[in-house]
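User: For my dataset I need records formatted as: sequence, then structure tokens, nothing else. Please produce one.
Assistant:
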Amino acid sequence: MAQKYEQGTPCWADLGSTDLDASVDFYGGLFGWTAADMGPDAGDYRIFRKDGRQVAGLGPATDVARGSSWSTYFAADDAEYTARKVEEHGGRVVVPELDVMGQGRMAVFTDPEGAFFSVWQPLEFAGFELANEPGSVTWNELTTSDIDAAKVFYQEVFGLSMRDVSMAEGMTYTLFEAEGRPVAGALPRDPAWGPMDPHWSVYFAVDDCDAAYARSLDLGATKVMPPENSAAGRFAILKDPQGATFSVIRNDPDFSI
């Protein structure tokens, strides 16, 4: 287990899909991922790899109401202790902590506003083997109906610190920091965006946002937001053919926060 993720750092993402084979085809065509089936003992879970390195997971969607969706996993030193902290601070345990074939322990929660998130306590497997490079996860972002409550919750559960930064058009963006390093972000939901449940978003780095957006549409995705520029880089939001929302971004190498 060469990699090490500090507690509260996003360390893994997986997709719960209503059609596993179709998801393999889509993300393979978009990012060049391959998929290895871990077999029936693993619940038909699959591991996506980019250039031989593990970048994400894939399993059957288990919540009919949610359908297909991407999940963000945070590193946790102790999944059982984290579950207690979640409940103490107004969150809900959706899936209690469980062992995953000797690789680690996981659990699934919602925060007080209803955003789903997961934790991973590593044993043999730490998490991403490739991140922040094209074709891999580069950022995780919370959209919430109560940003102040979210700050308190994630600080109490993971020991993260919070830092607000001013962005374009007077917007305030909250950085979640571990050991002084930004590891995730959060922003309040804008009513102009329409009905939207609180949720964690997954951003994938790409070399060319417009090309990745067009390729996604060619592969059967639907647009949520076409490419636009931001301080962090040019990004777009889409739904894959099974309905899971994801984002692609060409990071601005000169951007710093």
